[in-house]
Amino acid sequence: MRCRLLVCLVLLAHAGPPAAVFNFGDSLTDTGNLCADGIPDYLATARPTSATPPAASSSTSSELGLQLLPPSKAKNATFHHGANFSITGATLLDMPFFEARGLEHAVWSSGTLHTQIKWFQDLKPKICSSPQECRDLFRRSLFIVGAFGGNDYGSTLFASRPLPEVHTLVPDVVDSIGRGVERLIAEGAAELVVPGLPPTGCFPLYLSMFPRPPGMYGVRSGCIRDLNTLSWVHNAALQRRIAQLRAEHPGVRLVYADYYTPAIQFVLHAERYGFLKQTPRACCGAPGVGEYNFNLTAKCGDPGAYACDDPSNHWSWDGIHLTEASYGHIAKGWLYGPFADPPILDNKHLG
Questions:
Q1: CA distance 325 to 28
Q2: For residue 143, how far is the Cα from the chain centroid?
Q3: Domain locations along the chain
Q4: Which helix (H) or strand (E) holds 171?
Q5: 321 is catalytic
Q6: Cα 266 vs. chain centroid, distance in angstroms?
Q7: What is the rounded distance in angstroms from the CA atom of residue 117 to the CA atom of residue 163?
Q8: Residue 62: active-site member
Q9: What is the pLDDT of residues 237-261, one digit of tens each?
Q10: 4-271+324-350 in CATH: which number?
Q11: Is 310 known to be catalytic?
Q12: Stretch 55-66: mean pLDDT, rounded?
């Protein structure tokens, strides 16, 4: 449900709507693939809370007469206008990579980006009827690749590996994104949006699980500086890779979509976006447990967890994901600027 607003806004505002939209990612954009065969017992985030946020994306889509992207694993769905291949827990690096580093027990991956691209390729007979028809459709479609990388870095952090070791993953993670983009271009994709990572150190999950000594938090933000640096380093490397891909594929339009800047602004300038000015705090969690309303034993969806009365005045939904209100601001920034390079709707697309 969280990602649907992004997709709907893209569909709404894209001048000359794309023929189809294909989305790849992790739990930030999973609309049901992990639960296609029923909700797993361990997945608290898929269980209803005592005050589930309103389905703003669903009502917006209904009013506009737009279809939501079906999860690719949905039964009896049609995919002529696109599909969502995102799945909760997705990584960029595969299990042999983690096994070689002794991290196999710390990583839970339900499907890498490259696994999702394989699902995309397997689904092609349900999308189009011939190779030429597929290439023509994909050339007129919008591909959203990510955000990816959060689970790769997060799993390594939760394995208690030192931060310098986590930084060594950045080249492999960014290379995997680049190879994924090249595979989609080879399929005929001509317009791709590649999001970076949000500021990891601002999220209640990480603030709760990785306390730092005084002086290691942002003076105004209260975010963990070294974890935000990790996200910044990833995003800088990703932007360099995108620049290389643009040079190698001049006929392809590649958009870098910024999660980092808007999320920082939600913290520093909360009232400007209609959010409460407060310490980074989850809307849905365990009230009274911890400064950030996050506790691993009472996550959103677990017994004892409750949602705040008005999710629209919070930027963090459950300490891990954002609220619908946050995604609305980000989506508009991706479409029109300033949170995309170039904006999805630049003058060429508006003309």
A1: 14
A2: 13
A3: 4-271+324-350
A4: helix 170-186
A5: yes
A6: 17
A7: 30
A8: no
A9: 999 999 999 999 999 999 999 999 9
A10: 3.40.50
A11: no
A12: 33
